[in-house]
Amino acid sequence: MAHKKLNLPSKTCPVCDRPLMWRKKWQRDWQHVKYCSERCKREAKRNIGV
């Protein structure tokens, strides 16, 4: 059975401005997801300390 993924929520990564599409593994924590990758997460923490 084919699934249509047209109405999934999305966000934008504040570090690299790439779109984040909803993933099933983020289902419980979607409101807390901010970054597209661990690299962007580390970069954001490094820029806050500067």
What is the number of helical segments per DSSP (H or I, 4+ residues)?
1
Provide the β-strand percentage band: 5-15%
Shape: elongated
Category from helices, strands and their pairing: alpha+beta
Mean pLDDT: 87
How much is the radius of gyration in Å?
13 Å
The strands making up the biggest β-sheet line up spatially as 1-2
Number of strands: 2
Calculate the terminal CA-CA distance, rounded to whole Å: 50 Å
Order of helices and strands: EEH
Unreliable segments of 5+ consecutive residues? none
Portion of residues within helices: 10-25%
Describe the structure.
The chain is an alpha+beta fold. The protein is built from one helix and two strands, in the order E-E-H. It has a two-stranded antiparallel sheet. The radius of gyration is 13 Å and the shape is elongated. Pfam families: DUF2256.
Short description:
This protein has 50 residues and is of the alpha+beta class. The protein is 22% helix and 12% strand.
Descriptors:
single chain; two-stranded antiparallel ribbon; 1 helix; alpha+beta; 50 residues
What order do the helices and strands come in, and which of them pair?
Blueprint: E1 10-12, E2 19-21, H1 38-48
Antiparallel strand pairs: 1-2
